[in-house]
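Hi D.,

Good news: the full-assembly prediction came through. Inputs first.
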Amino acid sequence: MSAEHVDLPIFIAGVEKRNPGQPEFVQAVTEVAEDIFGFIADKVKYHEAQILRRIAEPDRVISFRVCWEDDRGDIRVQRGWRVQNSNAIGPYKGGLRFHPSVTESVLKFLAFEQTFKNALTGLPMGGGKGGSNFNPKGKSANEVMRFCQSFMTELYRHIGADVDVPAGDIGVGGREIGYMFGQYKRITNQVTGVLTGKGLEWGGSLIRTEATGYGAVYFLQNMLKTKGDDVEGKTAVLSGSGNVAIHAAEKIVQLGGKVLTMSDSEGFIHDPDGIDQTRIDWIKALKNDRRGRISEYAAEFKGATFTGGGARPWGVPCDLALPCATQNELDGGDAKALLANGCIAVAEGANMPTNLDGVHLFKAARILFAPGKASNAGGVAVSGLEMSQNSARISWKEAELQQHLTDIMAGIHARCAEYGADGKGHIDYVKGANIAGFKKVADAMLAYGVV
Ligand code: NDP
Ligand code: 2IT
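Then the structure:
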């Protein structure tokens, strides 16, 4: 009997047993399995080939020591990882995260999710993720550079333009990609598209920086359109104040919406006047140039408040919610608060920001709810376009890339609708994304036989 012939609880119990102490990974697999079990119930070929069981077992998990010297001359030791989940439909592809909360469980969940997300984009990319428990906060630029160089001194042997192409994620932006790309080039003497999110002068793509946040709002627009509605005049509550949150806020404002909140790990700011473009530009400089904290916003702009102690913004009444910080930042209680306040749509900019309770509540309430693997795919999609440009040694124009991004997000929406529509006017985007992503990877795996 194949694993998928067993009941869902037995399948999940097996995942728990094989991955002890890895709650985030088990959570991500559970959320997908809840939908896939129904889809494959009458499809023997997927059972026989043990497809879900295989996708939930990474191709490999590489773990390594990263030593570096801090500014005082002390030796520091961190752990680095690259999780290569699946290359069934293309080279492993996915970001690198530098954050003290990084564990093998977190990176395994992210690589698993990435496999489905990348399939949804329609581009030939497999799923991977990596990173380190290194905390960039409070480190000098030289310390970050030495860490990145040491990290790449091990990582370089596991990656390649046609093998595995990392990019940024939490704590890894243009600066860190630059240090890592410089070290890769130095070690291998090769200038290839081995990383994405590069600077425009050295092989990067236009709109990659904006793509995740903009893409999430395009997805939101597509969802609202199914109800004859749009972003204009709506209030939006956002979490995070990094790359994704900043650009999601920018696109909401461009479309005539009003952004009320942003956050970081210390708490959230609430600006009842709305965080307009001037204020977003101020946040960009705060984060990218001064590397400051979001609490400083409340001191700068009259009328805005900061709520500390790690507080989250979900109690602020809104029409739209976009969690754009990190995993499990929106739980069942938060979901209930949003629903009670009349929130009509949630688009995840982060990966798995809503915990399983929250997902179940949003699904049951039948609101417009986009899982990150669908709504935040714009970033990796433009990374895929950066890979194409690097291979062809050309740079596409901004208008062309913008068109690709809007088309790709519309395509993902259509794929979710294909498998998630109930025929009565409601689309379960979680189910649609899980099944559409699964089917593409599964069919490629069937073609390869047992490998
Ligand atoms: P950044 O590092 O630019 O920003 C991260 C933001 O989230 C910061 O405001 C940070 O606050 C906050 N944050 C991080 N960890 C925590 C935590 N444990 N608790 C509360 N707040 C936290 O990262 P990105 O904007 O790039 O990434 C945000 C999310 O989007 C992540 O889930 C990432 O996986 C996802 N994503 C990113 C893509 C990209 O292209 N960059 C693509 C698709 C998804 P603080 O500074 O206090 O840590
Ligand atoms: O979660 C994600 O999709 C990312 N961090 C972007 C990955 C990428 O390869 O651009």
